[in-house]
Protein 1
Amino acid sequence: MATAPIEPFNPGVPLKREWGTALSALRKLLADGNDTHQVFRIMRALNGDVTQRNYRRLLAAPGGGRLAYQRVELAERLTDRAWIDSFAEGTVGAAYRTFLDSTGYSADGLAEISMAEFGAAQVEHPYTWMARRERDIHDIWHVLTGYKASEHLGEACLVAFSYAQTGGLGWAFIAAGAALKSLRITGETAFFKAVVEGYRHGKRAQWLHGEDYEALMAEPIEAARRRLGIADPVKYRIAQAKLNAAGIQGI
């Protein structure tokens, strides 16, 4: 029997939601919070047309059409160490440099993981460019929001922030899973409240996808936070202190 030809990947067609795949990946992620592969599997399973919608919103945003036309590959800029080293102290770029040096993370490391899960990410299409952009700014959002990437609490708060910013159900699924697990692990609500705060801060902030990140990196970080309406994560710090005092490293 002849096998049916495999349909070529078309980024213009929204992915169908696969709740079973998302639930399986969430269980693995909650068992090992460092398993970044599961994050991308959840995104693929649940985010549907979110990248397409955010791309269309970018086109309508002030300056967004220019960004979409130029199609800068941020991973290439963020792995240019000479460029990263050029930023003055106190800027977003300098804070990002400190982030790289303190965590050992890199933009190309995240890109490699995403490529393992999304082999079609290099298809020549505006939506796949937008998906790469969404991926590459994740660690800059850590820097802007103050949510640490090296702890599960910080990641949970940022994914809640990201859900508010993007509308991607994958982010909401991860945030809810981590928040609910925290109630069982800690026996109290500080972690849960910090995640809710992350969502609320994401709703109140300016739409960060519309930013020119090459220009933003040179901006003083406190001025950038004020301009973008990124609030101080008070409940996050309270939860962070409680987890540290209890000797809890992960959720």
Protein 2
Amino acid sequence: MSKGKLQKFAEMETFKNVFQYPYSVIENVPFEMKGKWREEYFHNQNPIVLELGCGKGEYTVGLALMFPDVNFIGVDIKGARMHTGAKQALEEGLQNAAFLRTNIEIIDRFFAPGEVQEIWLTFSDPQMKNPRKRLSSTYFMERYRRFLVDGGLVHLKTDSNFLFTYTRLMVEKNALPVLMQTEDLYHDQSLDDDTRSILSIHTYYENQWIDRGLNIKYLKFRLPAAGTLEESDVEIPLDEYRSYKRTKRSGKDSAK
């Protein structure tokens, strides 16, 4: 690990807005704030919104600045990236922003039923080879249901045509209520001013995709608490890239 990363991790240990519970810790230490985020950290009864796979935390910080009467929590396992947003939130004096460093596979261990109102998935890894790792898969949707209010909102913002199509097909397969959908966010003239303002927050990776001329896609839908969720069996063309400046490793042209 580089000296810079070590320094960031050391600083993170002192940040009062960061909670670090990766697999190795949560197995041995119960998360006692589960169900008590409002009372014990935010000290209010405002709604809670999660940014899952928050990276540098641009949406967590940006939304917290935009909506002071809503509580935001950025979640990621990459501490060196999260350090950027966590430090900015402290410098901005944001009382409605927190960060949780953990594996999203165990996200339901940190929140009680009905404790969260919305989820943002911002530029998640499309995981073209492994459906169970996609943050918009039914595997994860079932976990989100354990703490999301009935009919809570899920936002997907992505550069990946594969992930967008996969998620759209999953939503259609399960008849989940769609509130908004666009395949070219920044050239969609139908957006109202409030939505345009919210979606104008750019992440570090988003700027890279925009510079490469890729369309940014957005999908907002509700996740009901009841009903069986099923995966679509439609083959989807793979993206030509896996992540920034990295081509896809698979020789396949499509996947489910």
Protein 3
Amino acid sequence: MTIKMKVWVLLLVLSSVLCVSADGLYEMNSVSGCSDTDGEDVLILDNEVVWYADFNKHTGVDSLPAFADHPHWQEGMYEEAVANQQICRQNLKMARSAMKDFPKERDAPDSVEIYTIVNVEIGVQNTLICHVTGFYPAPVNVTWNKNTKKVVEGTSITVPLSNKDGTFSQTSKLDFVPKGGDVYVCIVEHVSLTAPLTKIYEVDDVEPILGPAIFCGVGLTVGVLGVAAGIYLFIRGRK
């Protein structure tokens, strides 16, 4: 698998700049890519996506958290991303002409992992993560099942991110409330696969921990019995 062969299906333009502030050194990357059916324009700061173009909704998406500073340089970025897509597809057409004898490259995901954001507590809301990496071309399609039934509400998926070897990674999330015995399945589909990949997460049927309440109850009982025994011995001694 070589980057040269991958130009047949996808063109990526990457730029990188190191930003210096009073707090330290930061790395900002811009990724613009296109294929026959899809396009991507992403701004990444220290491996975190801070902005991306949603070509389906025809708008730029600011993915910074609400409490962060939202820079004004984002104005006009979506229009620039659209222009980059036109240039990318022209370059893709020329690349096809120059490399018409190369077969299309397809790499199946080499890793699918499923885990929760925080430790599981029965009845307390949590988030399941399904991380898929090592596939080419982008994207993958990720769906969720709960106890064999498809789940749509509370699901989301990131834009594909390029790995150093030219493959991609993508992450899907599912908000859920753990209940003992529930089984969740992350289902991954890709053009290179003849059958979907699945990863299972089972919620252990664990009863809530009652240790502090039990200890409190035992201590109170022992205390009451101790007082009663003391009063009994005092009265008996006076007789």
